[in-house]
Specification:
Shape: elongated
Structural class: mainly alpha
Distance between the termini: 23 Å
Number of helices: 8
Low-confidence stretches: none
Order of helices and strands: HHHHHHHH
Helix content: over 70%
Mean pLDDT: 89
Number of strands: 0
């Protein structure tokens, strides 16, 4: 395999992992099975790629929603309703389960879960961006282990 092909596959893995819906859950199996990458390389590229858009998402959601609320009355009503509803429900469960709930939500490799959805959920629940980023990183790291085992099997991981 040429160096250019290797870099191309690495960039594709990063790009796949950074996209919503696909995220690490799609990029890691492709890197391992289609591209034939080693487990550490595929894992690291998939985790890094999955996390690339998360901090910008966490940092931009609040200013964008504030802008929309300020300039469009319909968004003011919508966000007021949404925040009141989600944050009131979250306060009791957050006090009970804390960050573990968000980490597990991100870690479970099912449709509609993952770092993108977790970032939006963290913002809705009022979790500070840096803390939410760390929770997302923990969830993505766990998801990477789960997806690797699901892709290669336990014996494939241990060999």
């Amino acid at each position: 395999m040429s160096i250019i092909t290797s870099y191309y596959r690495e960039l594709l893995t990063l790009a796949l992992a950074a996209t919503p819906i696909i995220e690490l859950r799609g990029a890691l199996p492709v890197a391992l099975t289609v591209y034939g990458m080693s487990i550490p390389k595929a894992y690291i590229l998939s985790v890094v790629g999955n996390m690339l858009p998360i901090l910008p998402i966490l940092l931009l959601l609040e200013p964008i929603s504030n802008f929309l609320r300020k300039h469009f009355k319909v968004f003011e009503r919508f966000f007021t309703w949404l925040f009141a509803r989600t944050r009131s429900k979250f306060v009791t469960s957050h006090e009970k389960y804390g960050a573990i709930a968000l980490i597990i939500f991100i870690a479970i490799p099912l449709p509609a879960t993952g770092a993108w959805t977790g970032a939006v959920a963290a913002w809705l629940f009022g979790i500070k961006p840096v803390r939410a980023f760390l929770y997302a990183l923990a969830g993505v790291a766990i998801a990477g282990v789960i997806v690797t085992i699901l892709t290669l099997g336990v014996s494939g991981v241990l060999n």
